[in-house]
């Protein structure tokens, strides 16, 4: 990520992308199943996707002030311009987020969660059935 984003003229997104990717990868390792895949796409700014073999969707936790965990999806929700979860076929899922280089803050209400049955709509999320991104660039790490 530290190599790809500056090549795509998105170097300013590295800190936020690293934080959010670490949250999604930790969730996949803790709650998901193998195989695990990280995908970075230039669409037109940045989409990061973490796929795993579990079809269980992510569930936001209600973390208390003394809890050590349970804030990962809240961070994704706060910092990403959009994020969502897609079922994999025949199994698994992909949790993704997008960051925009021009905007200082995310667009309110722009979050998406296409899998209506399994992931609750939150705070004005916009489920729209988005299936795949149409990026010109793609980089994967397994």
UniProtKB/TrEMBL annotation:
Pfam families membership: HATPase_c_2 (PF13581)
Keyword terms, alphabetized: Kinase, Serine/threonine-protein kinase, Transferase
InterPro entries with a match to the protein in the record: Anti-sigma-factor_SerPK, HATPase_C_sf, HATPase_dom
Domain Histidine kinase/HSP90-like ATPase positions: 16-97
Basic and acidic residues compositional bias, start-end: 112-125
Annotated segments matching region Disordered: 47-70, 104-142
Tree of life domain: Bacteria
GO molecular function term, any single one: protein serine/threonine kinase activity
Protein's name according to its UniProt entry: Histidine kinase/HSP90-like ATPase domain-containing protein
Species per Swiss-Prot/TrEMBL record: Streptomyces griseochromogenes
């Amino acid at each position: 990520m530290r190599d790809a984003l500056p090549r795509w003229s998105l170097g300013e997104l590295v800190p936020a992308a690293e934080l959010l990717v670490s949250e999604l990868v930790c969730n996949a390792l803790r709650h998901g199943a193998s195989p695990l895949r990280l995908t970075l796409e230039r669409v037109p700014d940045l989409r990061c996707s973490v796929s795993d073999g579990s079809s269980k969707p992510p569930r936001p936790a209600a973390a208390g002030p003394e809890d050590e965990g349970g804030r990962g999806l809240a961070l994704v929700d706060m910092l990403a311009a959009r994020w969502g979860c897609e079922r994999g076929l025949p199994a698994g899922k992909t949790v993704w987020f997008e960051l925009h280089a021009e905007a200082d803050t995310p667009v309110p209400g722009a979050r998406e969660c296409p899998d209506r049955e399994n992931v609750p709509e939150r705070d004005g999320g916009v489920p729209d059935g988005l299936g795949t991104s149409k990026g010109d660039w793609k980089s994967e790490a397994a």
